[in-house]
Structure formats: C-alpha cells, structure tokens
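Lab notebook, bench 4. Continuing the backlog of folding jobs that were queued last week. Each job is logged with the same field layout so the records can be merged later without manual cleanup. Today's entry covers Methyltransferase, a 70-residue chain. Filled in by technician R.K.

JOB TYPE: sequence-to-structure
TARGET: Methyltransferase
LENGTH: 70
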Amino acid sequence: MGDVTLTGKTWVAFGEAGAVGTVHSVEGGYTYKLLDDSEYRGVFPALDVAKSALHASLLPGTPWPEFKEH
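JOB STATUS: finished
OUTPUT FIELD FOLLOWS
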C-alpha cells in the first residue's frame, strides 16, 4: 500500500519486549504497520479494527499490546 496520507493521531503498540508497531489515522480510516514493515497494511474503517488487525499480525499467542496515543 504505497500512497497513504497520515491525517493526525498516532498510537504506538507496545508488547512485552517494547514497541511492536504503530496505528495512524488516515483519510478514510486507520492504518497500521509493524516495526519491520516498509509499507502500511491497508485502511480500516475504525481504530479498534486497525488495532485488532495489528494484533492479528503478531506471532500467535502474543498478548494484546498496550496502545499509547502520541
């Protein structure tokens, strides 16, 4: 997903070992990427949906990350 225009807030997802990814507000909803990603992973209609998608992208069994707004 190449062209994404960030429009405002960012949430950093923290796991047991530190930051694992970020969620961003964009035109049309929210997007996320893990720290190792080079591109954003789609646009989701709601913040909770983007957070759930980020969590689903982590290794199976990984606890729900703590999201801190920045």
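OBSERVATION: Residues 14 and 66 are 5 Å apart (CA to CA).
SIGNED: R.K.
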